[in-house]
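User: My collaborator sent over this chain with a note saying "see what the structure looks like." That's all I know about it. Can you take a look?
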Amino acid sequence: MTESDSPRRRRSRLRRRRRARLRRILLTTLVVGSLLLGLAGWVGLRGWQARAHLVNAAGLAGELSAQLVGGDTARAQRTLAALQEQSGAARRATDDPGWWLGRQAPLAGANLSAVRQIAITIDELARQAFPALLRVDLGGLVPQEGRLDLTGLRAVNDDLVAVDATVQRTRTELAGISGDRLVGQVRRALENLRGEIDRLAAMTSAADRASRLLPPLLGVDGPRRYLLVSQNSAELRATGGMFGAYAVIEAEKGRVRMGAQGSSASLGQFVEPLTIPAELRALWGELPGIYPADVNLTPHFPTAASLYREMYRRHSGESVDGVLAVDPVVLSYLLKATGPVKVPGGVALSSENAVQTLLSHTYQRMSPKEQDTFFAAAAATVFDTLFARNVHPNGLLSAFNRSIQERRILFWSAHPEEQRTFGDSRMAGTLPEQDTVPTVGVFLNDGSGAKLGYYLRHTADLAVDDCHADGRRELNLRVTLRSTAPASGLSESVLGLARAGDPYTARTLVSVYGPAGGAVLETRLDGVETSVGNGTERRRQVATVNVEVGPGGTRTLEVSLLTGKTESGAAELWLTPTATPWTTHVVTAPSCSQ
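Assistant: Without extra context I'll predict from the sequence alone. Here is the result:
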């Protein structure tokens, strides 16, 4: 071998080594790439399978809900079995090694993890919460032959506690999923499921509280007395309507009966006003502490109820254990479950005519004295029917649930430990000092001294707008009031004091409550900047506008608001319950972090 050959051979060996190394690198890349492509294909296939199962499960869950409410237990059992099959298949499709590896990927991982959690949530509800709901004897939650079976109610409680625990746990797990890196389809599915779980959580929490609270509330430990107050939606107040007729409800050992009845007018006025919160005084002066009809100028029901209870005590010398408020729309829902009833005097009340009869015809056709007699007779008749007639529990529970969701049934207990159990539930009517989701309140108070509220129609549109650098967001609110009142022919009872000047013009004080920790920025009435009354209540800025609407007229109020610091792109409305439901529309937006 010559010296000149040696370097050539060395270079040749180096080239062969480099080519071998390159072949190994290419082969490795090809193998790994093939594996990744195979994994992506596998995850994609499993994703489509999971999606199909989840879509089927969502449809079956809707059917199951309707069957539970309708009392069709046999069909509900079959639907539950099919739901468990679909939810289990979705969970298995997202629980293999390929899916696990996909969840580790930097981009797709968040979406695959979210889909996995959605599948787990639906499957756990199908296997733990829904079977327990099917076991619950709903008959134990409603009166039978004039009383509630408190022993049966306690038996129901065990299942309801387990159901609520499962629902609350899944709700917390879903809340922990960040939506920042999710694609639109997965993010929307997550948001929809969160909304459904929130509604389910509200119902199971309410049922759990009811099963625990009803025994003491209904006198298992001794007699109880409550004021049942009718809110007159023809004379608007923030919580629904002016407190009109009342009745004393007496409960002992599960048996309930109606006692003395009266009207708010009979309580008189209090020359020495009751003590009211300073914020409320700044908004409304001393009115809530003087007049029983004005205690609920505030939307915070615990304040209104405690004031009314004290007024009743000063007038009668007797104390009660709490206040329950309902409106005529609640009666219409209950009458759908019980069937029509005949009020002494020959008037038949049904779900179709109750609201019109109680809020319009009565004032048009009867004298004030006859009105009081009729309202007392109607309340007693519906009450006796509810507790004496054996009514299917599903219909009654559906009526109660709808009424509570619409904030038409409100309850306050004078016993602090019981009141704390109600918390911020809709039935408690508590105006929260903090928001989970930015919430705007639109509350109506009649300023006419008349009963023209029955003829008003209302719409509210709320849109989430720009993000601010400090973490706040702008909201745009649009409220429309339209009057369907005739230009003539109404009785003096309807026209009342005519404080708007024209007796057929409805004057409504519209109070807009900003989100907790937020602000009311600008207010315009029919496109023109307008003067407002300003104040605060429970960490919310309040702007009150006088809106007067003549027969056939329409007025539009536009308000721009600012939230407190929030990452949410959602928003909610809290509205005064009215004789005719509001038309509402809320436009959400992506969170500021997206």
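A starting point for your reply to your collaborator: The first strand starts at residue 224 and ends at 232.
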